[in-house]
Write a structure and sequence with these properties.
Elements lengths: L7 H16 L3 H7 L4 E10 L5 E12 L5 E7 L5 H17 L6 E6 L8 H15 L8 E5 L5 H15 L20 H19 L8 E5 L3 H12 L3 E9 L4 E6 L6 H6 L9 H6 L3 E4 L10 E4 L20 E3 L8 H9 L3 E3 L1 H4 L2 H15 L5 H26 L3 H19 L4
The structure holds nicotinamide-adenine-dinucleotide.
Length: about 425
């Protein structure tokens, strides 16, 4: 979400401009790639359960589809902004390109708070979003997926509406569907696990054994939960996670120096990724202020909640012990803080590489849906590990060879791939 003076779209464009200049990209390609190619802004009137009608604002933004159909999630959030969606759609293009899957970048959203909507109201909202876009999205043009505060249930309502309108079955229209209804095994775990595959590779580069490391994670939703699960299964110690408390309207950090029991935390977390404070206290977990996750003396930080979380105001609070920041969320470090971390030589695994496991598995889901043949979970996770590990190694090699910051190296690979695609298609 954009807040105060922070604008994620300006952040995304600044990151792009920096590398476009390093690459000496021509003006036409630069102009084409630094903004979305298509935007849809619309209203969605929804009949509420009390008989009233409420009008919501919905969006779909397609940044680029030169390498394949646009791909990206749909976010439900009260503070969602058009510029956030623009930035996220742009990052999706780079994300699909860096892991070399044949998809472009898109993103959508509805300004709403699903925590205050009934199931029936959420269903009508999902169907309303599809009705406004049914001709502009689809398996061969733009493939949506879940994002913050949306899940498989929402995707299935959206798929059903799409199929009602077009007549027939089009399971490749949307990903993140429930398993057994066109979803892929492993999709729930994919983003968090993918994050840890890249952390595992980075630790090898740093000459560290995962079982001797500790981490602090911002967030405890889909990405953070599965990152914490795999990281601890591989022997790492999670000393803190944080999450939003919707009753108190603020976030808290949940910490335990000897290591949090992730399975126990799962059992006291609701479907929005909020942990029950009372149950946590009973388990001897310390409840600390929102920002405490960042100040922990750990080896690894994994910001995995929202954008714009590490800024000039708090970047100096990061402990000297931290050697690696793996961006589970999209855009968690703002431009100024990133500049500082770059100068300090911090090892950062950039968002569009670190959290690409989700879209990679979404791509696997689309392939399986289109074939109507589904793989075992082991096969999905094996393919995911291979794709994430190969992509990480390619970015690291580019960074080492050209003495680049990891973020810039990832951009070099992605921008080159997309620029080549638009040129080959004769667009510029
Ligand atoms: P989610 O809704 O499942 O979880 C979000 C978590 O962040 C929750 O635990 C929530 O309590 C917490 N949170 C919200 N505000 C907070 C704050 N101010 N401080 C601390 N915690 C806060 O969302 P998710 O799917 O886990 O996505 C998290 C991030 O990862 C987003 O930036 C999203 O765009 C990105 N991402 C998600 C996926 C995916 O497959 N889910 C893929 C790629 C990127």
């Amino acid at each position: 979400m954009a807040n105060g003076s922070y604008n994620p779209y300006e952040n995304a464009q600044a990151q792009f401009d920096r590398v476009a200049n390093i690459l000496g990209l021509d003006d036409a390609t630069k102009s084409l790639l630094r903004q979305p190619m298509k935007e849809y802004h619309f209203t969605i009137p929804v009949k509420m359960d009390d008989g009233s009608t409420k009008v919501f604002n919905g969006y779909r933004i397609q940044h680029n589809d030169a390498r394949g159909p646009a791909k990206g999630g749909i976010r439900f959030h009260p503070q969602e902004t058009v510029d956030t969606i623009r930035a996220l759609s742009m990052w999706m293009t780079w994300k699909c390109a860096v892991v070399d899957i044949p998809l472009g970048g898109g993103k959508g959203g509805i300004i709403c708070d699903p925590r205050n909507l009934t199931e029936n109201e959420q269903e009508r909202l999902c169907r309303g979003w599809v009705r406004k876009l049914a001709k502009d999205v689809g398996p061969f043009s733009d493939v949506p997926a879940p994002d913050v505060m949306t899940n498989g249930k929402h995707m299935l309502w959206m798929l059903d509406e799409f199929e009602q309108i077009h007549g027939g079955r089009y399971p490749g229209f949307i990903t993140g569907k429930p398993v057994g209804m066109g979803g892929s095994l492993g999709r729930t775990e994919a983003t968090g696990y993918g994050l840890i595959y890249t952390v595992r590779e980075a630790l090898k580069n740093l000459g560290m054994k995962i079982e001797n490391t500790s981490a602090s994670i911002q967030g405890f939703g889909n990405v953070a939960q599965y990152a914490a699960k795999l990281y601890t299964e591989l022997g790492g110690t999670v000393v803190a996670v944080s999450c939003w408390d919707n009753t108190d309207k603020k976030a808290y950090t949940f910490a335990k120096k000897s290591g949090l029991d992730i399975a126990a935390l799962f059992s006291m977390t609701d479907s929005f990724g909020s942990i029950d404070k009372d149950k946590a206290r009973d388990m001897g977990i310390e409840i600390l202020p929102e920002g405490a996750w960042l100040e922990q003396e750990v080896d690894i930080l994994m910001p995995s909640a929202l954008e714009n979380q590490i800024t000039l105001e708090n970047v100096d609070k990061i402990s000297k012990q931290v050697l690696l920041i793996a961006e589970g969320a999209n855009g968690p470090i703002n431009t100024d803080a990133d500049e500082k971390l770059r100068k300090n030589g911090m090892f950062v695994i950039p968002d569009f590489l670190a959290n690409a496991g989700g879209v990679t598995c979404s791509y696997f889901e689309q392939v399986q849906s289109n074939m109507n043949y589904y793989w075992e979970k082991e096969e999905v996770l094996h393919k995911l590990d291979y794709q994430m590990t190969t992509s990480f190694k390619a970015v690291k090699e580019t960074a080492d060879k050209n003495k680049l910051y990891m973020r810039d190296a990832a951009y070099v690979i992605s921008i080159n791939r997309v620029a080549q695609a638009v040129k080959m298609r004769g667009w510029v």
